[in-house]
Design goal:
291 residues, alpha/beta, 5-stranded mixed beta sheet, 12 strands, DNA-binding, LysR_HTH_N
Length: 291
C-alpha cells in the first residue's frame, strides 16, 4: 500500500463527500479510490467511511483520522516548499483551472513556454467554464474572468477581457445591414455556452436574450470557425478573434456595442506560495505585461 497516496485520496473523499470527485481529481477509477480506502481501513483496523448506496460520510474515527491527515499532508507540502526555496529548484506538479477560450488562446502557449524553461515542472491544465470551488478542489491556480466576489482567495490582475462582434465578409455582403444591437434579432447568431452563474454568461444573455442559435458551443475556437464559414454573427473575446480579423477572414462589426470590458485575475489560496507556483504566476504576469 502506498500510504501517502491513500491518505491523499482519503482526504479528498472526506472533503468532496464522494468517490467520483476523488477519482476525477486523481485521474483514477472509482474502484481504485475504493481500494485505497479499503487498504487504509484494513491497515488501521477501523471503518473510516460509512457507505450507503447514495452517499459516503465520515465515521467518528474517519473524522479524527482526516484531521490528522490534513496536518501531515500540509507538513509534507511545507517541507517540500522549504527545500525547493533553499535549493532554488523549481519542480513538482502545478494544477491550473481556466475558462476554455482563454485557456486555449492565451494560457496554453504561455504554459508551454514555462515548461520549456522549467524541465522539472509538470502542469495539469484543466479548461472548464464551470466555476469550481477552489477551497475544496485540489487546484493551485485559477483563472477567473469578471469582478471578484469577496472570498478567502488572493487575486492578481493579469489583463482585461474585451469582446467584439464579428462575421465573415460573405455573410455581411448577403444579409441586411447591422446598425445596432437591436438588429441582431434579424440575423443568425452563434451562441457561447458559459457556466450558468459566470460573469460571461450574464453578459451574453444581456446581449442576445433568450433566442435560437444556429450553433452553440463552449469553445470559442469552434464558434470562430463557424463565423468564418459564414454561419452568422459571433461575439467572442478579441484575443480569440484577432488572427481571423487580421487575415481578413472575419470583419469586426463596429456598429454593435459589446459587453463592458472585464478584468482577468489569477487566484490562489495562500500568500506563502510554493516556489513552483510562485514561479508560474510571475511567468504568466511577465508574459502578459503588454496586454
Amino acid at each position: 500500500m502506498d500510504k501517502l497516496t491513500a491518505m491523499q485520496v482519503f482526504s479528498c473523499v472526506a472533503e468532496q463527500g464522494n468517490y467520483a470527485a476523488a477519482a476525477h481529481q486523481f485521474n483514477i477509477s472509482r474502484t481504485m479510490v475504493s481500494k485505497h480506502i479499503n487498504q487504509l481501513e484494513g491497515y488501521l483496523g477501523v471503518k473510516l467511511i460509512n457507505r450507503t448506496t447514495r452517499q459516503q460520510a465520515l465515521s467518528e474515527s474517519g473524522l479524527l483520522y482526516y484531521q490528522e491527515c490534513k496536518t501531515i499532508l500540509a507538513a509534507i507540502t511545507a517541507a517540500e516548499n522549504t527545500l525547493q526555496t533553499m535549493t532554488g529548484t523549481v519542480s513538482g506538479i502545478i494544477k491550473i483551472n481556466a475558462p476554455v477560450s482563454f485557456g486555449n488562446a492565451v494560457l496554453a502557449p504561455i504554459v508551454n513556454r514555462f515548461l520549456l524553461q522549467y524541465p522539472q515542472v509538470d502542469v495539469d491544465l484543466r479548461l472548464d467554464n464551470n466555476l469550481i470551488d477552489p477551497l475544496l478542489d485540489n487546484v493551485d491556480v485559477l483563472v477567473r474572468i469578471g469582478e471578484l466576489e469577496d472570498s478567502a482567495l488572493i487575486g492578481r490582475h493579469i489583463m482585461n477581457y474585451d469582446m467584439q462582434f464579428c462575421a465573415s465578409p460573405q455573410y455581411l455582403d448577403t444579409h441586411p445591414d447591422i446598425c445596432s444591437n437591436t438588429d441582431l434579432s434579424d440575423h443568425q447568431c452563434l451562441g457561447f455556452s458559459y457556466s450558468t452563474n459566470g460573469s460571461l454568461s450574464v453578459a451574453h444573455q444581456q446581449i442576445f436574450g433568450k433566442r435560437h442559435f444556429r450553433l452553440s458551443s463552449n469553445s470559442g475556437v469552434v464558434l470562430t470557425q463557424a463565423a468564418i464559414d459564414g454561419l452568422g454573427v459571433v461575439l467572442q473575446p478579441s484575443i480569440v478573434l484577432k488572427e481571423a480579423i487580421e487575415a481578413g477572414l472575419l470583419v469586426s462589426i463596429a456598429s454593435l456595442t459589446p459587453p463592458e470590458t472585464m478584468p482577468i485575475h489569477l487566484l490562489y489560496k495562500d500568500k506563502n506560495l510554493p516556489l513552483k507556483t510562485r514561479s508560474l504566476i510571475e511567468f504568466i504576469v511577465a508574459q502578459l505585461a503588454d496586454h
